[in-house]
């Protein structure tokens, strides 16, 4: 039986943002959208997948499969998986661009992790309808998204960033202002390349530690107090919870691995654009290209100390 949540009274912000169009409610997008609804914003939730929209219908929120329907909002958040999807939901058939009234355009925040050049291309397209765009990718994962504790890595013009500040404040505990449009994406991509590599490597090391008969909790404790410190060792209990959630569902595992691989490729693309040699990064990208999803799940099961079912 579906659970119907009692939503708080809708916000009426002094900056005029009370209704938000949220495009893309996947692994991170869903808890972000739920967080905004819980903190009082009116939402138009957009996703092509009917099953992704179902929880929001149970919350009595407006849902749609057409991004153009979100153009009626005061602000639109784009939180899709990759560059192609971001461009499609803005400029494709039934895309956001086609629904915008140039006299009353929404503010647009690209919160997906995509290339800076894609953000600038999207912004130029939206500018033809007088819509202002910022990029504000996030870091922290689904658990922190549900708590409103994400890091938001924003860049763009000061005026739209200031107007969006209350919304970002509902989603994140820290907002970084990174300069000109696209800088937020560049910083997020470089950050993710480190985080993804650590998560993959820690999975491999957990299997090695198991084989050696080592106490994994002790290994993590030593790493946290030593030169092996990372985001995994810094909050190991949370990381175990995150990994257990990921490996509990084959579709979720596949989606997470695909995002990890995508983020590594984006970092590699930035290096190529700058004509920078990055043999270590190239090696990580190549090594992960053909790893079966099940192998990633097995390694993360060891890292999360979950007993196989």
Automatic annotation (TrEMBL):
SUPFAM superfamilies: 6-phosphogluconate dehydrogenase C-terminal domain-like, NAD(P)-binding Rossmann-fold domains. Keywords: NAD, Oxidoreductase. One of its GO terms (molecular function) is NADP binding. The active site is at 188. Residues 182-283 form the 3-hydroxyisobutyrate dehydrogenase-like NAD-binding domain. Residues 19-179 form the 6-phosphogluconate dehydrogenase NADP-binding domain. Coiled coil: none annotated. This is NAD(P)-dependent oxidoreductase.
């Amino acid at each position: 039986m579906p659970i119907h949540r009692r939503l708080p009274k809708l916000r009426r912000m002094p900056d005029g943002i009370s209704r938000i169009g949220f495009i893309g409610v996947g692994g991170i997008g869903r808890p972000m959208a739920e967080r905004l609804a819980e903190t009082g914003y009116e939402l138009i939730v957009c996703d092509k997948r009917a099953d992704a929209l179902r929880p929001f219908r149970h919350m009595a929120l407006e849902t749609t499969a057409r991004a153009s329907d979100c153009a009626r909002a005061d602000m639109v958040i784009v939180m899709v998986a990759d560059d192609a999807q971001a461009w499609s939901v803005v400029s494709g058939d039934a895309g956001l661009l086609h629904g915008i009234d140039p006299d009353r355009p929404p503010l647009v925040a690209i919160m997906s992790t995509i290339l800076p050049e894609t953000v600038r291309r999207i912004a130029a397209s939206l500018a033809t309808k007088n819509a202002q765009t910022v990029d504000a990718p996030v870091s922290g994962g689904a658990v922190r998204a549900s708590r409103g504790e994400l890091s938001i890595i924003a860049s763009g013009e000061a005026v739209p960033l200031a107007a969006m500040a209350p919304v970002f404040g509902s989603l994140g505990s820290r907002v970084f202002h990174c300069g000109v449009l696209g800088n937020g994406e560049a910083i997020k991509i470089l950050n993710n390349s480190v985080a993804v590599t650590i998560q993959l490597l820690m999975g491999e090391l957990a299997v090695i530690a198991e084989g050696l008969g080592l106490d994994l909790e002790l290994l993590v404790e030593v790493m946290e107090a030593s030169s092996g410190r990372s985001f995994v060792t810094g909050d190991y209990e949370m990381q175990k919870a995150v990994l257990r959630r990921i490996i509990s569902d084959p579709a979720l595992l596949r989606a997470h691995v695909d995002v990890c691989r995508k983020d590594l490729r984006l970092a590699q693309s930035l290096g190529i654009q700058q004509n920078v040699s990055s043999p270590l990064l190239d090696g990580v990208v190549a090594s992960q290209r053909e790893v079966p999803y099940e192998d990633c799940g097995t390694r993360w099961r060891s890292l999360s100390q979950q007993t196989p079912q």
